[in-house]
Predict the structure.
Amino acid sequence: MSTFTTKDGTEIFYKDWGTGSPVVFSHGWPLNADAWDLQMMFLADKGYRVIAHDRRGHGRSSQPWNGNNMDTYADDLAELAEHLDLKGATHVGHSTGGGEVARYIGRHGTKRVAKAVLIGAVPPIMLKTDANPAGLPISAFDGIRAGVLADRSQFFKDLSLPFYGYNKPDAKPSQGVRDEFWREGMLMSIKGAYDCIKQFSETDFTEDLKKIDVPTLVLHGDADQIVPIVASGLLTAKIVKNATLKVYPGAPHGMCTTQADKVNADLLAFLMS
């Protein structure tokens, strides 16, 4: 397996496939790099170098007690880019990974970055506050924490339904997709899973978004039950300079899986633009 060790001694697993212009993927919670397989296969076959890592505490990376916070996630991503000496990379982030990409640019700039893509991403902030009245109440995230601590196996099985929109009347659920969601979730440490909830829900990425100075594509489903579009994608597209917003009618949070062909086509068009 390909891994590198961060400055604080955490081992980070990553995939590095193909040759050409680099495209770096940051996954959502509670998943890992495998969540990007459909995008990576497609783009590597189109002549791109595709890279995806397992965030610390997730997947095949180390499970440290400390460092499960957005600043460190972003710094790990920066160390990966330095380790591979990436230049002119397009960074693609889904959900929590979208926050990771925003914070990476906010902390480290765009000297290695050519473009950014935020898909169903958590910025600018998920939590309901006086400044963000459209956000979700803290009770929603307390419920996620309680579910992870009480029985995370069952919690992940249940979460896969709204994640992929499989709880809608017209849905055609895939047991395989649900099983894979559960498998990836169970690979992460319970400590990493628990700590990350605060990071994706309470981190304010507004200032990070203002620092993005490269062409940015924002993709979001208007039926996203996990990261509702009103307080996320729509606001992000207004804050980021050079942002292009594309709304997927009826698409769920897990649209990279349920609408992979459409997402792949939009990614390729953006990379070629």
Q: What stands out?
A: The chain has a mean pLDDT of 98. The first helix runs from residue 37 to 45.
